[in-house]
Structures are given as structure tokens and as C-alpha cells.
Design goal:
5-stranded parallel β-sheet, 7 helices
């Protein structure tokens, strides 16, 4: 796609995230791109006549919890959304924007039941590398990965090992609650 933005800005996942959110909502995306003009993205979402509170489904009690989760996400807006989802599910949430911040939490005297980390992060430490360091600091710590990349791509390129707990972005609160409980209980 042609862009008017500078080189090196962003991760390239924005369009994939938008597409995922729109498809989950029953809509579609139309994109046009021209050299020298940039790219236009049009979102088409279905009309609803209900009230916003009508569309929220309560999460079953068995999918909530009171454990402490270390949330590691480099994108601040995504981190805020994930934090909000987890807090509504009853979890205590500790936040880190990168691997070194997460390691500081892990070395501190805080109870942590689950490391919930993005796979691809800037700054030289991936989610896989963070999990390896976390295992040295807190043996047996449960890990749940998240990524905007397709699972096949992540596993094929060695960013995570096959069989790990991986939640694809974008995700809804109900998907997050199931993934967290599965990771905590295995």
C-alpha cells in the first residue's frame, strides 16, 4: 500500500487489526491505494437498533478469576483495552510496556499467576525471550501469548513454539476470558 507516512513508523499491524475488528462485527472493509495520494480505508459496519447494553453478554462465572496477571503489551491503547477486559473479569492486572519492565515486575515481590505477553515487541526482547527469562525467575509461571500475526506465521518463523497458549488479536472479552482460564488451569 502507498502511504504518506514516514519510514520506520509503526509495526504494520494496524490494517490487520482493523480488518479483524470489522469482520468480527459483521462488516467489511474497502481499500483504495494510489501512488502520491496514499491509502483510503472505508469501513462498513452493520446497523443496529438495540441499545449498547443489550449487546453485552455476561461472562459465565467459571470464566472469571481473582488471580494476578502480568500484562505485557507495547501498544498503550491495546494495553489499556486488555487491562480493562481483565479487570472486569476480576483479575488483578500489573502492566508492562516491554520486556525489561516485565522483568522488573517478575523480580519484585508481587504474586503473579500468569504472564500475558505480546509475541512481537520492539526493543530487542520478544515475548518468547521474555517467557524464557520469566521461567528462570519464576519456574512454572503460566504463559499466554497474544499476536496480531497468524498463528501459522508465528510458529513457522520460530517466534513461539508449537503447542503454546496463543490468543490471536483482535479478541473479544469472552475469547480472552476462555484463553486466560485455559492457560491458568493447564
Amino acid at each position: 500500500f502507498f502511504t504518506s507516512g514516514g519510514k520506520g513508523g509503526g509495526t504494520g499491524l494496524g490494517l490487520a487489526m482493523v480488518y479483524g475488528f470489522v469482520k468480527q462485527s459483521g462488516g467489511h472493509v474497502r481499500i483504495s491505494s494510489e501512488p502520491g495520494q496514499g491509502t483510503t480505508v472505508r469501513l462498513y459496519l452493520p446497523r443496529t437498533h438495540g441499545h449498547p447494553s443489550d449487546s453485552r453478554k455476561e461472562v459465565p462465572k467459571k470464566l472469571t478469576g481473582d488471580e494476578t496477571i502480568l500484562l505485557v503489551e507495547d501498544d498503550e491503547s491495546l494495553r489499556q483495552v486488555a487491562h480493562s477486559h481483565l479487570a472486569r473479569l476480576g483479575y488483578t492486572v500489573l502492566e508492562a510496556g516491554n520486556g525489561p519492565e516485565a522483568l522488573a515486575w517478575l523480580k519484585a515481590d508481587h504474586p503473579i499467576d500468569l504472564l500475558f505477553t505480546d509475541v512481537v515487541m520492539p526493543g530487542g526482547m520478544s515475548g518468547k525471550q521474555l517467557a524464557a527469562q520469566a521461567e528462570k525467575i519464576r519456574p512454572g509461571l503460566k504463559v499466554l501469548y497474544t499476536s496480531g500475526y497468524a498463528e501459522d506465521t508465528i510458529v513457522h518463523h520460530g517466534r513461539v513454539d508449537p503447542g503454546v497458549h496463543l490468543l490471536s488479536k483482535p479478541y473479544r472479552q469472552a475469547e480472552l476470558s476462555r484463553a486466560v482460564r485455559r492457560a491458568l488451569e493447564e
